[in-house]
Design the sequence.
């Protein structure tokens, strides 16, 4: 299974988010416990208030004197200490409370609905107890007369309800805060990491040969190690390029000098040789020239790897004219009928020397194969975002199956030819460096090969 | 008899070039070390110096600079295997008069030597030679194999432009522009008429043509 590539920003984001969530939870926990205590305190205060109210309602009768009759505490006048109205009024004020009044330890008055009298703690102060299958909390209050004990109790469920409501109210703003923090965090991260993207696009916009070191002052300190490493790499590449250039120069010198000696000697021989040998000497010269051509091709190909690409506005028509002139000058005047369409300037932004190398290779190839056909037809066509140069000959053409192979090094066409086998591979390499393509096709208007060079538009 | 200094350290190439140039009728002194070249050039009066760049003991460029610093104006043709543009520029900047890349064609080298000799004789600006045709600007005369060929004014202008830009295509538009500032109005087929007249006088193959490119002189048959 393929492992997903890690992202620095995602990792950082996840970690900070985790920290944020933990902090949020901790704050929530503290808030919750504080709220819990406040709710307890408020509820307890309510119990105390309720018991005081009851005591106040009984105060007058108690002052006058009380007696117990049929387990009921009654006043001097024989009426119960708490009338039905008073009980109802109490329940209206404290709707979730119940109460019991004890006289000398015996229950003598209670709220209307079934109070769990037996379970109620008969002591002053705050107490928790279990009754009717639930938790209760009670407050016991002694009267001025110590025989009187008023106990008010409340179901625990009532408190839980308040706490739940409070938590709900707290949770929403907390969640909103968390979401807002997430967004701000993500935005901040992206903004800081955009420097890395800027670095990538700066490097991406460079041409193949631009090995200038980056200016460390222009970048944040955090990416300085990266900039330094890149600059070291650039320096090493530059060095490697220079070594390669020096090597190709050495090869050029070493191979060309002995070849020049052979050629010079052959030319001396041609002047002095008796007529019978004349043709052999001419053939010898042709062989030397072919070897020279091969060395030139190899050097061109090797140098293409170390070539710097510099696009500028080029008159492609003039470049074609120059290349055709150079190629035709070596041939008898009536050997080739050449034509170029159009007959005026065609400007295009590209690297002039690379395009010249590609054109020379393709035109040289066409002339070697078109000698029999005697035609060289070139068309330069601007097509919106690209420039197409077609070079057609009237030679034997190339079977479709062999076309790919011909673009490789040292591949000759089917016929015995004088070429080095490098021409089209040089053109192919140069077109790749130009960002373009090369295609071999049949001529649509009869026999022969059509080479189609396509150049992309480059931004200036 | 013109005397040449040949500086070439390759044991095969040096003697081969000397032999070929001797066959052309020159007296050739061959040297293989840079310091020897400088000493010989200072003590003898050579007509042209052929200088290889990769010489031992003092590179060709060093020798050339030293010669120019010593106010020696002998024409120098650099003959080298280094063919990069910067190297050509460096050679010409150092004071070379011409630059030939190995493997040099000996006939071309001989032609360039002749051209340097003519320049030395002070005839450099008044005549051009392309193949068998010679154009003399002072006398407004053209010659084929040394025989004068009479030309009209238009033919002379067309031929002069073609020969000044030999081995390159000259567009029909450029030729028309060349004729336009004549007193006579250039008609649409003036160039074609002049070219066919020139072909009649100098041979069909002297002026090449290619559709879309124009006309050109120079090259194999010229």
Sequence:
């Amino acid at each position: 299974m393929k492992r997903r590539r890690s992202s620095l920003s995602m990792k950082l984001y996840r970690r900070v988010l985790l920290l944020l969530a933990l902090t949020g939870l901790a704050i929530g926990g503290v808030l919750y416990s504080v709220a819990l205590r406040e709710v307890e305190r408020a509820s307890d205060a309510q119990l105390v208030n309720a018991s005081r109210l009851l005591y106040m309602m009984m105060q007058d009768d108690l002052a006058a004197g009380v007696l117990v009759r049929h387990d009921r505490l009654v006043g001097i006048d024989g009426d119960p200490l708490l009338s039905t109205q008073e009980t109802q009024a109490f329940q209206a004020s404290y709707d979730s409370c119940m109460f019991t009044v004890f006289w000398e330890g015996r229950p003598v008055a209670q709220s209307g609905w079934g109070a769990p009298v037996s379970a109620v703690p008969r002591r002053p102060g705050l107490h928790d107890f279990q009754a009717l299958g639930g938790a209760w909390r009670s407050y016991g209050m002694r009267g001025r007369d110590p025989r009187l004990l008023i106990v008010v109790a409340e179901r625990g469920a009532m408190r839980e309800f308040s706490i739940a409501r409070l938590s709900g109210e707290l949770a929403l703003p907390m969640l909103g805060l968390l979401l807002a923090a997430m967004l701000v965090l993500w935005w901040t991260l992206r903004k800081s990491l955009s420097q890395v993207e800027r670095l990538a696009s700066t490097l991406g916009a460079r041409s193949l040969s631009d090995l200038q070191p980056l200016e460390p002052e222009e970048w944040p300190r955090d990416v300085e190690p990266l900039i330094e490493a890149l600059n070291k790499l650039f320096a090493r590449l530059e060095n490697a390029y220079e070594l390669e250039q020096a090597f190709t120069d050495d090869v050029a010198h070493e191979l060309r000098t002995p070849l020049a000696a052979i050629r010079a000697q052959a030319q001396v021989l041609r002047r002095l040789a008796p007529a019978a040998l004349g043709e052999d000497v001419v053939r010898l010269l042709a062989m030397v020239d072919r070897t020279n051509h091969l060395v030139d091709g190899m050097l061109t190909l090797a140098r293409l790897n170390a070539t710097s690409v510099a696009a500028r506005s080029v008159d492609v028509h003039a470049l074609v004219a120059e290349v055709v002139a150079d190629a035709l000058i070596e041939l008898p005047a009536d050997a080739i009928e050449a034509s170029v369409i159009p007959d005026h300037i065609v400007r295009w932004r590209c690297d002039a020397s690379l395009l010249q190398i590609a054109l020379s290779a393709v035109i040289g190839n066409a002339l070697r194969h078109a000698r029999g056909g005697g035609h060289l037809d070139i068309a330069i066509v601007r097509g919106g975002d690209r420039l197409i140069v077609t070079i057609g000959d009237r030679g034997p053409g190339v079977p479709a199956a062999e076309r790919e192979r011909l673009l490789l090094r040292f591949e000759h066409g089917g016929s015995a030819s004088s070429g080095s086998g490098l021409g089209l591979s040089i053109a192919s390499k140069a077109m790749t460096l130009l960002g373009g393509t090369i295609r071999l096709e049949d001529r649509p208007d009869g026999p022969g090969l059509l080479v189609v060079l396509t150049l992309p538009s480059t931004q200036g | 008899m013109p005397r040449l200094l040949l500086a070439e350290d390759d044991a095969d190439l040096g003697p081969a070039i000397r032999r070929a140039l001797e066959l052309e009728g020159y007296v050739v002194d061959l040297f293989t070390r840079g310091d020897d070249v400088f000493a010989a050039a200072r003590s003898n009066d050579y007509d042209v110096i052929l200088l290889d760049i990769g010489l031992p003991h003092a590179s060709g460029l060093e020798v050339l600079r030293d010669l120019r610093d010593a106010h020696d104006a002998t024409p120098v043709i650099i003959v080298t295997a280094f063919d990069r543009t910067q190297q050509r520029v460096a050679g010409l900047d150092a004071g070379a008069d011409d630059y030939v890349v190995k493997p040099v064609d000996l006939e071309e080298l001989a032609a360039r030597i002749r051209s340097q000799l003519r320049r030395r004789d002070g005839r450099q600006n008044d005549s051009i030679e392309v193949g068998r045709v010679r154009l003399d600007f002072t006398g407004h005369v053209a010659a084929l194999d040394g025989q004068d060929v009479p030309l009209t004014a238009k033919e002379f202008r067309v031929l002069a432009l073609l020969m000044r830009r030999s081995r390159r295509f000259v567009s029909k538009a450029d030729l028309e522009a060349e004729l336009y500032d004549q007193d006579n109005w250039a008609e649409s087929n003036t160039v074609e008429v002049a070219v066919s007249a020139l072909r009649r006088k100098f041979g069909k193959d002297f002026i090449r043509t290619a559709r879309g490119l124009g006309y050109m002189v120079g090259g194999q048959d010229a």
